[in-house]
Amino acid sequence: MPVYDKPMIYYPLATLMQAGIREILIITNPQDAHLFKELLGDGSQLGCQFSYEVQEAPNGIAEAFLIGAGFIGKDKVALILGDNIFYGAGLEDLLQKNTDPDGGIIYGYHVQDPQRYGVVDFNEEGNAVSIDEKPANPRSNYAIPGIYFYDNEVVKIARTITPSKRGELEITDINRAYLQKGKLKVSILDRGTAWLDTGTFSSLMQAAQFVAVIEERQGLKIGSIEEVAYKMGYITKNELKDLATPLLRSGYGEYLLNLK
């Protein structure tokens, strides 16, 4: 599914790649798994390594740590939702600072209507003191966006939580477990950072409009995985040219060829 001029999945992939993450497990439903494999391959063309697993039923975000336990092994791990877009100055540096967590690291994003989201309240040291899921009376205006960093304990924690009333393994329960251990940190996304959740028809349209306006005004792409791979040093200029050449007729390839 496209968001303006590129597939939706490019945006979260680009975010992970900007963080310096090159080994990525893509978890999809059974019906769409082959489409993602055809689109992205094994990631080697981007200097990355893509693996794939299937979530048989919508059993919750936290099930990703059970499905991906073998992939994670003894490493620390980041999780990003496939329909979330992040964009803003300083974002790359912030992400890279959070890739070695001792516990869990989540983000706070100031919103006008926090009752629609998971809401975090925290102290002056950046330690979370409470997490509420869609509270009627939010304790703060900081929603929790769909990107998370955890140490390896997350796999053990995921094995201990039980399904919620919705029948899902909730990422909020993972975060609360870290909170109870006193090991949950909150990084605040600057007010100049955009967080877009494209999970509804209206938000998908708004995201496409946002990307279009920024790209057409600045002449720069948002969420270009080929550009990120090149800028991060994952691929060479010649390898970028190989990726761009088949895309010349769309204009996207010309953009890639003109990167400095």
What does this structure look like?
- It comes from Muriicola marianensis.
- This protein has 260 residues and is of the alpha+beta class.
- Helix content is 34%, strand content 22%.
- It has 11 helices and 13 strands.
- The strands form 5 sheets. Strands 5, 7, 10, 11 and 12 form a 5-stranded mixed β-sheet that branches.
- Helix 9 (225-231) runs antiparallel to helix 10 (237-244).
- The protein starts with a strand and ends with a helix.
Radius of gyration: 18 Å
Percent in strands? 15-25%
H/I helix tally: 11
Succession of helices and strands: EEHEHEHHEEHEEEEEHHEEHHHH
Largest sheet: 5 strands, mixed
Unreliable stretches: none
* Helix percentage range: 25-40%
**How would you name the oligomeric state of the polypeptide chains in this document?**
single chain
* Average of the residue pLDDT scores: 92
The separation of the N and C termini measures 29 Å
- Structural class comes to alpha+beta
Short summary:
By secondary structure, the chain is of the alpha+beta class. It is 34% helix and 22% strand. Strands 5, 7, 10, 11 and 12 form a five-stranded mixed sheet that branches. Strands 1-2 form a two-stranded antiparallel ribbon.
Key descriptive features of the protein:
Nucleotide-diphossugar_trans; alpha+beta; globular; five-stranded mixed β-sheet; 260 residues
Chain-wise SSE layout:
Layout (H helix, E strand, L loop, with lengths): L1 E2 L2 E2 L2 H9 L4 E6 L4 H8 L8 E6 L9 H4 L1 H4 L4 E4 L3 E4 L3 H7 L6 E7 L7 E5 L5 E6 L8 E2 L3 E4 L2 H8 L10 H10 L3 E5 L5 E4 L3 H18 L6 H7 L5 H8 L7 H6 L3
Parallel strand pairs: 3-4, 7-12
Antiparallel strand pairs: 1-2, 5-11, 6-13, 7-10, 7-11, 8-9
